[in-house]
Fold this protein.
Amino acid sequence: MFVFGLLEWVYVVVIQVTHPDWLAMSLSHYDVAPLNWRVDDVGILSFAISMFGFFLWRLETGRKAS
C-alpha cells in the first residue's frame, strides 16, 4: 500500500507541475467508477493510502520476533 500509493501520488505531482490543466480531467476516458475520478482527487486519496500503508509497515516492522 505504501509503495503503490506513493508512486501514484508522485505521478499526480508530476502532472501538477508539468500539465496543471489536466488535474480537473478524469483519470481515464472510461466513464466507470473509479476510472472516472478526477486526477487531483486520486492524488489526495493515494497520499492518504500511502500514509496509512507506511504506518502499518512501521507497526509490523517494529514488533519484536518471539
Notes: The mean pLDDT is 89.
